[in-house]
Design a protein that fits this description.
The chain has about 160 residues and is of the alpha+beta class. It has helices at about 35-45, 55-65, 110-125, 145-150; strands spanning about 1-10, 25-30, 70-75, 80-90, 95-100, 130-135, 155-160. Helices cover about 25% and strands about 35% of the residues. The longest helix has 14 residues, at about 110-125.
Length: about 160
């Protein structure tokens, strides 16, 4: 398996994709660990996101608090189309910790739009100096190219 680590070092590197009118993206401003758990399972199921499936609500709460997680959800006509989590880290780093679409919204042009929103959200934090993300062969086949089309550059590749 190949894991790719990508970074963006300035907001000017963003090559945005337009956000379709029907795509509504909202930040989850009140912490609800059960909602993060649901999104992780719902979006990650098809990509073998399994490491946090057995976590308790308390573990999710701790994860959200200790990793300074902020969550956004994308909706189309009231249905969950996808979500992303940003982890605000030390030294100006922000990680796109989780990013994905629900199965029925893949291949409809929402991935680039949601990623553009995630990147803009990360750069809106005054402390952001670097945005990073990782993806692997288990993720959607277009994941790596979507990150690169939005302006991310690979800085490390790991083969396991």
């Amino acid at each position: 398996m190949q894991t790719y680590y990508l970074e963006m070092l300035s907001e000017q590197a963003l090559i945005p994709s337009s956000i379709p009118e029907q795509l509504v993206i909202s930040e989850v401003e009140l912490t609800q660990p059960e909602f993060n758990q649901f999104l992780y399972a719902f979006v990650g199921k098809q990509w073998q996101w399994t490491d946090k499936l057995s976590w308790s609500t308390a573990q999710w709460q701790s994860h959200i608090e200790s990793n300074h997680i902020r969550t956004w959800v994308a909706y189309v006509q009231g249905a969950i189309a996808g979500y992303y989590e940003l982890s605000v880290q030390d030294n100006g780093n922000v990680e796109i910790a989780y990013f994905g679409l629900t199965p029925e919204f893949i291949g409809k042009g929402y991935g680039g739009a949601l990623l553009s929103h995630a990147i803009s959200s990360a750069w809106s934090f005054p402390s952001t100096k670097r945005l990073w993300v990782h993806t692997c062969d288990l993720d959607h086949p277009s994941a790596l190219s979507n990150y690169q089309r939005r302006g991310f550059a690979i800085y490390k590749t790991v083969t396991e």
